[in-house]
């Protein structure tokens, strides 16, 4: 029998090739191994799904609950730079050796069952959380909801942040079809929260059918605000004079309101004070979500990779004020709605630096050039022309080109796949290290 790896890097490389499909929707295999591992939670569990806003909502919940003194387990995906970002206990990324031990435990119990990379690692993190004496567990859905590996756990509170078109080959091509898949994380008799201002009828109908306690934005909870502060109003709880979340962007009050609705629903088990909410929102951080880096030219990182998220990014760029030129570092997966993404943002970009990505699923830079031309983007030849469109073989190369051409008062927005943003972060880190030597 082949020996198991002794490093996290070795394990992750092994998991890449264990299962014939990268994504294999369904719960039977993963639930069987969960039962063998005897994974169970005595503390409240919050599961967060949705097309966009999942990561931000999870980060806000974690930040507030940490401020309140609770021991929090947070599982998210994907990661930007290190796998360990996916599993946090008490606000800290879990160490390699702890993850290796849990991956070995899954291997010992899965026997003949084949698991995908995501299913395998989800089980490992869940087992770690089940043994970590936590006060609360927050789990982010990977894809969809109903058939996602995270859904093997019954959530005390399930949040669907937003419903829009993405992953159509797995979830369907309409908001109604996708809404049904997202609603699959709801449970009978438990709190189900929808933060989408226009919830699909399919989601509402599913919640009613199973007898979930559905909280809808605008009916059961809401928010209001001015330039200085904002307020949350729920079924029986009001929170006033709140700081705007540390995460920037037009949609963050929707995400924050859904998070506060979840905490209201759990207030008897996880009481949280007003100052802890204020501090948690003010201190929350999450790389790659309309993240504006210090320095000039302005550099904005955003993992917007579908039209819904890119529309929010475009609005956020508009709210930043005037910049003479905007450079885009853009890379995307070929199964995304690339035309829809471009349509939302093309009017805000003067110069495009499009990039290959080191994954089989990625769209080639040449395809991105083709789609930009089809969208009516007219490339010129230099900085003073109306537009340039230039292909590169890596996000780092695209970013270096943009930074070499941008003036101090310009801005660079790196967006699209997580891999695009990660590549730019790594390029900036090597730039900083290079400047130190």
Give the key terms.
alpha/beta; globular; UDP-N-acetylmuramoyl-L-alanine:D-glutamate ligase; 8-stranded mixed sheet; 15 helices; Protein-Tyrosine Phosphatase, Chain A; 437 residues; single chain
3D architecture notes:
This protein has 437 residues and is α/β, with parallel strands linked by helices. The protein folds into two domains: 8-283, Mur-like, catalytic domain (UDP-N-acetylmuramoyl-L-alanine:D-glutamate ligase); 291-436, Protein-Tyrosine Phosphatase, Chain A (Alpha-Beta Complex), CATH 3.90.190.20. The protein contains 15 helices and 17 strands. An eight-stranded mixed β-sheet has the order 4-3-2-5-1-6-7-8, sandwiched between helices. The radius of gyration is 22 Å and the shape is globular.
Q: Indicate the overall shape.
A: globular
CATH architectural label of the largest domain: 3-Layer(aba) Sandwich
Number of strands: 17
Helix content: 25-40%
Our estimate of the beta-strand percent is: 15-25%
Spatial order of the strands in the main sheet? Answer: 4-3-2-5-1-6-7-8
Total helices: the number is: 15
Residue runs with pLDDT of under 50 for 5 or more positions? none
CATH topology of the largest domain, what is it called?
A: UDP-N-acetylmuramoyl-L-alanine:D-glutamate ligase
């Amino acid at each position: 029998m082949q020996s198991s790896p002794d490093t996290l890097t070795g394990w992750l490389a092994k998991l890449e090739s264990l299962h014939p499909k990268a994504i294999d929707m369904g719960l039977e295999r993963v639930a069987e191994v969960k039962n063998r591992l005897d994974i169970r939670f005595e503390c409240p569990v919050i599961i967060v799904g949705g097309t966009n806003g999942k990561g931000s909502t999870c980060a806000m919940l974690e930040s507030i609950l940490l401020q309140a003194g609770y021991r929090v387990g947070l599982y998210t995906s994907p990661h930007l730079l290190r796998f360990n970002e996916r599993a946090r206990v008490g606000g800290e990324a879990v160490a390699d050796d702890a993850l290796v031990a849990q991956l070995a435990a899954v291997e010992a119990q899965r026997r003949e069952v084949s698991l995908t990379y995501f299913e395998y690692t989800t089980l490992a993190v869940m087992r770690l959380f089940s043994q970590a004496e936590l006060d609360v567990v927050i789990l982010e859905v990977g894809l969809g909801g109903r058939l996602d590996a995270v859904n093997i756990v019954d959530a005390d509170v399930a949040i669907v942040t937003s419903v829009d078109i993405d992953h159509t080959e797995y979830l369907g091509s309409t908001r109604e079809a996708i809404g049904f898949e997202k609603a699959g994380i709801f449970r009978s008799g438990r709190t189900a929260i929808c933060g989408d201002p226009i919830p699909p009828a399919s989601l509402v109908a599913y919640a009613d059918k199973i007898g979930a306690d559905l909280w809808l934005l605008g009916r059961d909870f809401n928010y209001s605000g001015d330039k200085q502060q904002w307020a949350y109003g729920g079924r029986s709880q009001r929170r006033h004079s709140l700081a705007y979340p540390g995460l920037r962007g037009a949609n963050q009050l929707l995400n924050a309101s859904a998070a506060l609705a979840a905490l209201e629903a759990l207030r008897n088990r996880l009481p949280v004070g007003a100052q802890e909410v204020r501090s948690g929102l003010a201190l929350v951080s999450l790389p790659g979500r309309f993240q504006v880096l210090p320095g000039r030219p302005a550099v904005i990182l955003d993992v917007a990779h579908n039209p819904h998220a890119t529309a929010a990014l475009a609005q956020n760029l508009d709210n930043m004020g005037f910049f003479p030129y905007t450079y885009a570092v853009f890379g995307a997966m070929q199964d995304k709605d690339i035309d829809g993404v471009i349509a939302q943002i093309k009017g805000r970009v003067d110069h495009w630096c499009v990039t290959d990505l080191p994954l089989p699923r990625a769209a080639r830079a040449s395809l991105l050039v083709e789609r930009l031309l089809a969208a009516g983007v007219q490339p010129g030849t230099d900085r003073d022309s109306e537009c340039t469109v230039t292909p590169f073989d890596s996000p780092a190369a695209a970013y270096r080109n943009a930074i070499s051409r941008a003036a101090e008062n310009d801005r660079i927005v790196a967006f699209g796949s997580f891999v695009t943003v990660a590549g730019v972060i790594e390029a900036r880190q090597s730039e900083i290290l290079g400047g130190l030597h």
